[in-house]
What we know:
- With 88 residues, the protein is mainly alpha-helical.
- 97% of the residues lie in helices and 0% in strands.
- The chain has one helix at residues 3-87.
- The protein is rod-shaped, with a radius of gyration of 38 Å.
- The termini are far apart.
Amino acid sequence: xxxxxxxxxxxxxxxxxxxxxxxxxxxxxxxxxxxxxxxxxxxxxxxxxxxxxxxxxxxxxxxxxxxxxxxxxxxxxxxxxxxxxxxx
Length: 88
């Protein structure tokens, strides 16, 4: 084997090792991306559920407030009615 052949084989081996290392790094990166995607989807799902719960709670509070406001109006009307009746 000549010096040129030995150098060529050494370069070929080094390139194969480098290609293997790059493929491994690429596979690790793809795995990390899949894991991050899964975590992100999970967090988005939790955030969306939480937002829906908050929206529902706000709706309930608004309905409760409207009922309370109507009750206050009714009590005021009754007080006014009693006051008018008392002055007669």
